[in-house]
Structures are given as structure tokens and as C-alpha cells.
Write a structure and sequence with these properties.
This protein is α+β, with helices and mostly antiparallel strands and 155 residues long. The chain has helices at residues 3-17, 31-42, 48-55, 59-81, 88-102; strands at 110-117, 136-143, 149-154. The chain has 5 helices and 3 strands; from the N terminus they run αααααβββ.
Length: 155
């Protein structure tokens, strides 16, 4: 991620993620720091302990920060960049790009899914038990001919 992209993303989510003046850590946990914590956490294995160590904060702060920032990205940024075609012209354009690149007709994207393992939720835990014999969230995504996400669902 470039510095410009980081700063742009921070500016977009600032209204939701910015620290509250009544919070004891409001000077320390700026929007930029919260975004950096989240990106670091998401970069590979997603260890709260490792992220907390790197940033010199407690694991529960990392957990809360990652949730708030991810929610902001999903709710604010997601609909701007990740959406299925809204009309016939957009669908036709994506389908023609897909046909030119891969030779597949009448397709505008590739779909795939995965299970993201989680701890058993306190409420309705059995609803999250997958055929893989562990608790998980089911993630499904669609990518266009350039490999950009155009739809993502997580349930």
C-alpha cells in the first residue's frame, strides 16, 4: 500500500474511526495509528499478541481497533469500490473484458469461497459449525477480469 493510498483511506474513514476526546487514549490512538494497527494485523496470520507487541498496546485494544476499522472500511469504502454491475451496460462491458482476456463468453467474473476459522460464538454457536468440522465464517467473493473484487459476502 502506498503512502498516498494509506492517507486517502485514513481520510475516508476518519469520521467513524477518529478518537473521541473523552477517551483516555484519544491522543495516542489517532486514525492513522488505528489504520496502521489494522493493516499490520491483517497482513498475514492475524495475531493480536504480535500486533499488540509491535505497537506497544494491549491485545484488547488491538481487537477493538481492528473491529472498528474493518467495520468502517466495510460500511464506507466497500460500497464505493466493491459492487456488482449496476446496469446492463456495465455488465456487458465486464463480460466483453472477460471474453477478451480468458475466452469465456457470457461471464463477467470468477466466484470462489472459503471458510475463515473462528472461535465458537457465545450466541447460536452451532450455526457457525461448518462441514470442515470447525466453527467458521463463510466468505464468498467475485473478481472481474483484472482480479479486482466486485462482490464480497461474509456470513
Amino acid at each position: 500500500m502506498t503512502k498516498g493510498c494509506f492517507l486517502e483511506l485514513a481520510a475516508i474513514i476518519d469520521t467513524v474511526v477518529s478518537p473521541q476526546p473523552n477517551c483516555p487514549n484519544y491522543r495516542f490512538l489517532t486514525t492513522h495509528k488505528k489504520l496502521a494497527i489494522t493493516i499490520y494485523y491483517l497482513k498475514d496470520t492475524g495475531s493480536f499478541w504480535m500486533t499488540a507487541n509491535v505497537f506497544g498496546i494491549h491485545q484488547c485494544i488491538v481487537s477493538k481497533t481492528v473491529k472498528v476499522v474493518c467495520d468502517a472500511i466495510n460500511n464506507i469504502v466497500g460500497p464505493i469500490y466493491i459492487h456488482l454491475p449496476k446496469n446492463k451496460e456495465d455488465m456487458t462491458k465486464l463480460a466483453s473484458q472477460f471474453e477478451v482476456k480468458f475466452g469465456m463468453i457470457q461471464a463477467f467474473g470468477c466466484i470462489d469461497g472459503t471458510h475463515v476459522q473462528i472461535k465458537r460464538p457465545i450466541k447460536n454457536g452451532l450455526d457457525y459449525f461448518s462441514y470442515k468440522q470447525y466453527f467458521s465464517l463463510n466468505v464468498q467473493a467475485v473478481c472481474d477480469s483484472k482480479g479486482y473484487f466486485i462482490d464480497v459476502e461474509c456470513k
